[in-house]
């Protein structure tokens, strides 16, 4: 069953995230397939958050020491990112969320989409084991802030159980 939300035009960022998290809770309640859930979450984020041009996930492949592209919404993306490289690889290596105000000022930024101007990456770490990252890009400089960080980290905590058996 599909479930969409209507976001009031005057909604604050907090209001939007509250609605987004409720929608994701609804979508997860009867589905346990990681691909289906991650695909829907990517869509919710891309279509609900302001000025987001790309939203998706990368999965960590420890045998190759790199991230591989997972479900996403947006333009074509980099398929593989080496551990420790770019914003995604650095966030996973540091095991911390990275908010990049201006991607042109981030050393080693990987330009998968030249229209990306700011980015936020939240690592997915379970029991100190890297599983992947949640990555959002914006076409505006400075689009992401501490409230995005807080809510997206809350989202990752909420969905980390989906990654329990990944990689096998």
Report a brief summary of the structure.
The chain is α+β, with helices and mostly antiparallel strands.
Structure description:
With 168 residues, the chain is of the alpha+beta class. The protein has one domain (13-163): Beta-Lactamase, CATH 3.30.450.40. 32% of the residues lie in helices and 26% in strands. The protein is built from 4 helices and 6 strands, in the order H-H-E-E-E-H-E-E-E-H. Strands 3-2-1-6-5-4 form a 6-stranded antiparallel sheet, with helices on both faces. Strand 5 (118-126) and strand 6 form a beta hairpin. The two termini are 29 Å apart. The mean pLDDT is 93.
Outline the secondary-structure elements.
Layout lengths: L12 H16 L5 H15 L3 E10 L4 E8 L6 E3 L3 H9 L3 E3 L17 E9 L2 E10 L7 H14 L9
Antiparallel strand pairs: 1-2, 1-6, 2-3, 4-5, 5-6
Helix pairs in contact: 1-2, 1-4
CATH class: Alpha Beta
Q: Element order, helices and strands? A: HHEEEHEEEH
Main beta sheet, described?
6 strands, antiparallel
Low-confidence stretches: none
Please state the second-level CATH architecture.
2-Layer Sandwich
Helix content: 25-40%
CATH-assigned homologous superfamily: GAF domain
